[in-house]
Amino acid sequence: MHADLTRQIASYVTEKLESRLAKLASGVAVVKVGGASEVEVGERKDRIDDALNATRAAVEEGIVPGGGVALLYAAQGLDKLPAANVDQSHGVKIIAAALKVPCKAICNNAGLEGAVVVGNLLNESNGNTQSTKGMNASTGEYVDMLKAGIIDPVKVVRTALADAASVASMMTTSEVIITDVPAKEEPAGGRGAGMRGGMGDEMF
């Protein structure tokens, strides 16, 4: 507990010193946010906060191509990873499959065929884990993600992957997992149609 407290204090002091240094070096900017409503102002402030945090993270650890392609191409490197046994081999395959999901999901959300895009990118990369080509979800075009300015901070990608692995590991060792049951969709015709069918069954 003492060690944790010391680290927290050190982190707080470091943050304050960096803030003071920025002010002394005239590296301070005031961002004024406006909008037609309180909700709009709040949303814009959240976007600015996200941008600032992403910028700080990028300064700390650098950047990688965005749009999920950094993880997509990293998955190719796992094919060469030696496994000590069958269980490890299955684990590597699971992680490799998971690394392809972000890029696929981004494309699907943009109305594109995520599976097709992922397949095309992997085929064109030819196993090159350093490739920077990806899909611009806004335009539907294949571009060099770095040149197009579509980037992700390394810290964000790394922590997201580590957190996902932690959650998955916890789930595999849990005896019980609680989740929400999806609501059942009513058949075409609504509730009345179902009632009529039920009455007919009872009559026969």
TrEMBL record:
Region forming the signal peptide: none
Keyword entries, A-Z: ATP-binding, Chaperone, Nucleotide-binding
ATP-binding among keywords: yes
Location of region: Disordered: 184-204
Entry annotated with the keyword rRNA-binding: no
Pfam families in UniProt: Cpn60_TCP1 (PF00118)
GO molecular function: ATP binding; ATP-dependent protein folding chaperone
A biological-process GO annotation: protein refolding
Residue spans of biased composition, Gly residues class: 189-204
Database matches in PANTHER family: 60 KDA HEAT SHOCK PROTEIN, MITOCHONDRIAL (PTHR45633)
Family of the protein in this entry: Belongs to the chaperonin (HSP60) family.
Name of the molecule in the record: Uncharacterized protein
Originating organism: Plasmodiophora brassicae
Lineage of producing organism: Eukaryota, Sar, Rhizaria, Endomyxa, Phytomyxea
